[in-house]
Amino acid sequence: MNRRDALTTVALAGAAMAATTSIKADTAPTSTLDRIKKSGVLRIAVIAGQDPYFHKDLSTNQWSGACIDMANDIASKLGAKVETLESTWGNQILDLQADKIDLAFAVNPTPERSLVIDFSTPILVHSFTVITKKGFAKPQTWAELNKPEVKIAVDIGSTHETIARRYCPKADILGFKTRDEAILAVSTGRADCNVSLAVLSIFTLKKNPTLGDLAIPRPLLTLPTNLGIRAEADRRYKDFLSAWADYNRSLGQTREWLLKAYQTVGLSADDIPGEVQF
């Protein structure tokens, strides 16, 4: 091989290597933020029966609610549109891990979850309440519910279930796939009560006033609720969402989104018990 042929071979090899590197770069995984900006789509989980967070119009299959307003606001900052995937409180964590969604709303940052996903700073701090069926004595403390004869309905995989099992381990805890099914168990007398976040229980009782009564047992239990995202080395998406959460929470905008959703059933700020953080 003469010198010219050798140089040509080296050049061709270099070009092939460069092309291979370029292909690898093009197919290499990008961060969530880069993917959203490139596709123009923000994928979120939506959960049926979770007013005022999420509401599904069964006639149109359109979603509304406080979390939809939040998602649209986040998407607008990223030059994207919102795409929904119907899920459950428990499954949305799996959806994040499986890269089916980019964002999960109202996720409580438990130590176990922090091992598999990441979180923004809190969007709200919530209080836990109990919806009791008609005729069942309203509990003044969680200890009053911690009895084998008390049947507590919860939606599986939710923080409602976590609280019930933590504070009422002796009770008969009935797990249901959705919160709607847990509420139905109370309305039909299959369960004595349902553990729910105040933001959900207040809405439920306003919509169904004959269902039962609202109780706020002592000690008052609160827990932050955050945005859940996939864990990744690139922190830009997490930092953006944390800044968004802090900004809207401090301005009271997050509260306004929730009150807007409450208005659909005639609820106002005056209907929220003073003990409830919101």
Task: Explain the overall architecture.
It holds the Pfam family SBP_bac_3. Keywords: Signal. Residues 1-18 form the signal peptide. Residues 41-261 form the Solute-binding protein family 3/N-terminal domain. This is Transporter substrate-binding domain-containing protein. The chain is globular, with a radius of gyration of 24 Å. The N and C termini lie far apart (79 Å). The model is unreliable at 6-29 (pLDDT under 50). By secondary structure, the protein is an alpha/beta fold. It is 40% helix and 23% strand. Helix 3 crosses helix 10 (253-262). Strand 2 (55-57) and strand 3 form a beta hairpin. The strands form three sheets. Strands 5, 6, 7, 8, 9, 10, 11 and 12 form an eight-stranded mixed sheet that branches. It has helices spanning 3-27, 32-39, 66-77, 91-97, 111-114, 159-167, 179-187, 198-207, 236-251, 253-262; strands spanning 41-47, 55-57, 62-64, 81-87, 104-107, 117-119, 124-133, 151-155, 172-176, 193-197, 212-215, 222-230.
Low-confidence stretches: 6-29
Q: Sketch the major β-sheet.
A: 8 strands, mixed
**Rg, alpha carbons:** 24 Å
Total helical segments: 10
Beta content comes to: 15-25%
Structural class: alpha/beta
User: Would you list the SSEs in sequence order as H and E?
Assistant: HHEEEHEHEHEEEHEHEHEEHH
Principal-axes geometry comes out as globular
Total beta strand runs: 12
Mean pLDDT, all residues: 88
Amino- and carboxy-terminal Cα gap: 79 Å
* Helical residues, percent: 25-40%
